[in-house]
Structure formats: C-alpha cells, structure tokens
Amino acid sequence: MGLRWLLVILIALLLFSGLQRWLLKLGLGRLPGDFRFRLFGREFFIPITSSVLLSVVALLITKLV
C-alpha cells in the first residue's frame, strides 16, 4: 500500500512540474509553503501549499456534484 501512495505522489509532482507555467499564471506556486530550488543545474518545484489548496477545491467540487 505504501508503494501505491509513493507512485501517486510522484505522478502528482510530475503533473505539477509539467503544468508549472500555467499554474504560475493563476498565482499557484507562489504561495507560502511552495518550494523552488536549484540542484545540479536543474530547477525543482515542490508545491505543497498549492497541492493542499487544489485538493480542497477538488473535494468541494465533488461534494457539490
């Protein structure tokens, strides 16, 4: 079961990295708790706060539908 969650987290981080430019236009990725750092010449983006915010929005949408 732990491997499944690790895979889900990895896929979510890959999606956020791929959609980074679009999300920045919406203001996501600049919230406190969203980390961006450069390592070995590559920039990494870990959107913790944005992920929580999007999860809450998705939860509210599913509750209403």
Mind explaining what this structure looks like?
With 65 residues, the chain is an alpha+beta fold. The chain has one domain (2-64). The chain is built from 3 helices and 2 strands, in the order H-H-E-E-H. The protein has a two-stranded antiparallel ribbon. The longest helix is centred in the first third of the chain and has 17 residues, at 2-18. The radius of gyration is 13 Å and the shape is globular. 6% of the residues are buried.
Summarize this structure briefly.
By secondary structure, the protein is of the alpha+beta class. The protein has 3 helices and 2 strands, in the order ααββα.
Which features characterize this protein?
65 residues, alpha+beta, two-stranded antiparallel ribbon, 3 helices, 2 strands
- Quote the beta fraction: 15-25%
Helical amount among residues, as a percent range? Answer: 55-70%
Uncertain runs: none
Total count of strands:
2
The H-and-E topology, N to C, reads as: HHEEH
| Rg, nearest Å | 13 Å
Tally of domains: 1
Q: What count of helical segments does DSSP give?
A: 3
Question: Would you spell out the secondary-structure blueprint of this structure?
Answer:
Blueprint: H1 2-18, H2 20-25, E1 34-39, E2 42-47, H3 48-64
